[in-house]
Amino acid sequence: MEDRADSEVLFRPLVRSGKAYYAFLTLLVAVLLFGGYAYYVQLRDGLAVTGLRNYISWGMYITNFVFFIGISHAGTLISAILRVTGAEWRRPITRMAEAITVFALMVGAPMIIIDMGHPERLLNLITSGRLQSPILWDLISITTYLTGSLLYLYLPLIPDMAACRDRLTQVAGWRKALYRFLAMGWQGTPEQKQRLHKAVSIMAVIIIPIAISVHTVVAWIFAMTLRPGWRSTLFGPYFVAGAIFSGIAALIVAMAIFRRVYHLEKYLEVKHFRNLGILLLVMDVIYIYLTLSEYLTTAYTATETELPVLAMLFEGQFALPFWAMIIGGFILPALLLAMPALIPVRAEPAPGRATATVPQRSTIWRGAATIGLGVLAYFVNSLTTVSADIQTTQLWPMLRVFSVAAAVLALLMLIVPVLRAHPIATVVGASLLINVGMWIKRYVIIVPTMSNPWLPIQNVPVEWTSYMPTWVEWAITAGGFAAFILFYTLFSRLFPIVSMWEVEEETKPVSQPSTALAPSLGD
Amino acid sequence: MHTLLLRCLIGLALLCGLLGSAPAVTVQAEHGAPPSALQANQPQAAAWILTLDVSTSAPGFYLAEARLVDGAGQPATAAPIAFYEQTTFGRLLLETAKTNKQGYASTEAKIPNRTLNLVAVYCVSAQSCPVETTGQLQVEVKDNGVPFWSRPADLNTPYAPPIPIALMLLTLMGLWGAFGFVVYQIVRIKRSAVKTSARR
Question: Is 80 exceeded by the pLDDT of residue B115?
């Protein structure tokens, strides 16, 4: 009886829809239609309506493609890896993760077709495709991944579909039929459970290499092209790490929204955000390391062809997004995630001891460090008033970065207590920054390299030598994001967004079967 | 003599212009062959005559040598000659070199393709280019020689290499076979429900 009352909160979004929901849906559909109109314009007038030209033929569409394929890794990591390793805390978040995978793939993959200009030419891949080409590998791996992800999303849905079939008697007839069909006659018999566990375990194991292969192949499309900035043996693992990194960040944002809108506080607790926050921090540090490795080796060798790309990134046309990505998308989130854990917590006062007049040692240290860093930042910034010549030295850019870093650190030291008091908001804030940073990352991988082909750009109008997205590309991009959110929202209104039977299984005695791999293999 | 030659050349140029085609003298060069071979001589203005020789200089390299003389046959000194490669997408500027006292300007680079189409242009100013000429070089590969323009074999073969493809297909078959097994489990879940209902 208590279980039934508990799960009511999970059924509520499936039967109740307020005005705000319909308003949100209308907004998403409007953006989607606007994106559809932009695509119609592109089909009618050709790719000339975009900023893409002969030389810079990849831009926002391919950025979106790599970004969405990246966040599709959320499902793989959280669900499959945690399922295989038997991490029990994963149970309330697996379905959200798996749904992200499917919808991200459904939006990301068509971006390639949009970029092609002529969608019918996709058939050429089938009729004239060369198996030597990474483009064909990409088609094969994404198709396999989407099929696997759909299966992997559907399998744990079966018991919940049976629950919906049995309990949602007031919904429309087509929904009853849908639940009945998807439930596959589930009655929870031992044989059915055993088969379900076996199927889920198989999928959990094989979906991991498939997901890794997908992003590796995406990386190879770049790395196997003779272009400066792309030819790197690091690209495979670099892209996979980036995908997992952005996937976790996307999942955290989705969890926070569902928690707030559907009142899932009981299911999505602080521990879920904290655990994912730790994973996110680990991936952030790994990604910073890989980024450093990537750019340091290239900059150190400084070949003639690589230098223009690096110059564009570090101090040229793309310096602003590049440094915004490095500082705002990677370093700042790492500090946000790490500092509440690294700065010592103020000790609880001993009973009966007055604390108002005696500051704690940790408070003193933090105050001193904050003031010190602030003074340092001010000192470095005011060096120019002493001598303007310092700006001409090679040391100056480093000093500027150092002073900004010191100022940011000082600010973070000040707000550490606030961060600690709001752990979910902190993790979500870091995740949002990471998502924006990772989108920019994909953009600065693609466009600067396309702007620097091996053969110099000649005999073309000057506006063809650089890339600036047009309204058509922005509209289609907005439409893509709207489609992703729309699919996700509709899914959460049709199906329980938390895997009810898995959560119930967690609370039941140990004698119940577990979905972890080890017990299933013993079946 | 010079005037006669000049008239002949002008007449030839006019004829070519009328017919809409340029005579191209193709030289079959080999690796390591000595510099030789005039490619084409196609002056388009009476005041200047520009000739272009393209030949292989070292294995994999070509030497393009242009000579600019005035109407009287006197070599032009310190005149900028721009060398272009004629590509599918237009002309690609390779180098601009100034003529020496004998009127020669040259450039040397790797041969990018089996057939190389070069253009030499003499421009007095940005707006005025009184004369240009084209040249072509075709390079044959000896049976025992390694083509210097060759790319990794897998990029040139018309068919995919069988062993990696077989491995790839096997992996794919394994994955899709696993999907099939999972779908079979779903079917069995459905069947067991039917059986249980019938028993009841």
Answer: no
A457 CB burial (10 A radius; 0-12, 13-18, 19+): middle
Nearest-CA residue of chain A relative to B176? A144
Closest of A104, A54, A112, A110 to residue A75, by C-alpha: A104
For A253-287, what is each residue's pLDDT tens digit? 999 999 999 888 888 888 899 889 999 999 999 99
Alpha-carbon distances of B137 from A213, A492, B12, B111, B148, rounded to whole Å = 45, 66, 22, 9, 15
DSSP state of B148: T
Q: Is B165 on the interface with A (CB under 8 A)?
A: yes
Q: Is B157–A151 a contact, with Cβ atoms under 8 angstroms apart? A: no
Tokens read off for A175: 């929904």
Looking at residues B37-48, what average pLDDT do you find? 47
- In angstroms, the Cα distances linking A51 to A38, A227, A243, A439 are 13, 20, 27, 18
| pLDDT value of residue B24 | 34
A253-262: b or e for each residue (b if 16 or more CB lie within 10 Å)? bbbbbbbeeb
What is the pLDDT confidence band of residue A391, given thresholds at 50, 70 and 90?
Answer: low
Question: Within 13 Å, how many C-alpha atoms sit on residue A71's CB side?
Answer: 32
State the pLDDT at residue A343.
Answer: 59
Token reading at B143: 């049976």
ipTM greater than 0.85:
no
A360: three-class secondary structure by DSSP: coil
B194 touches chain A (CB under 8 A): yes
Residues of A in contact with B89 (CB under 8 A): 54, 459
DSSP string, A63-106: HHHHHHHHHTHHIIIIIIIHHHTT-GGGGGGHHHHHHHHHHHHH
The predicted pLDDT at position B59 comes to 74
Q: If you write DSSP's letter for every residue of A222-287 in order, what string do you get?
A: HHTS--TTT--TTHHHHHHHHHHHHHHHHHHHHHHHHHHHTT-TTTS-HHHHHHHHHHHHHHHHHH
C-alpha to C-alpha distance for A321 and A51, rounded to whole angstroms: 18
Tell me: pLDDT of B165 over 90. no
Output phi, psi for A337, to 5 deg: -75, -35
pLDDT of residue A46: 92
User: Which residues of chain A does B188 touch, with a Cβ-Cβ cutoff of 8 Å?
Assistant: 195
Q: How far apart are CA A332 and CA A430, in angstroms?
A: 8
Provide the pairing of β-strand B131-139 with B28-29.
parallel
Nearest chain A residue to B193, by CA = A185
B53 three-state secondary structure: strand
Fill in the DSSP letter of residue B147: P
pLDDT at B40 over 50: no
Residues 83-102 of B with CB under 8 A from A: 89-93
Section B91-119 average pLDDT: 85
The rounded distance, in Å, linking the Cα atoms of B67 and B120 is 10
Taking the Cβ of residue B185 and every Cβ of chain A, the question of whether any pair is shorter than 8 Å is answered with yes
Residue-by-residue DSSP string for B72-101: TSPBPSS-EEEEEEEETTEEEEEEEEE--T
pLDDT value for A303: 80
Distance from CA of A185 to the nearest CA of B (A): 5
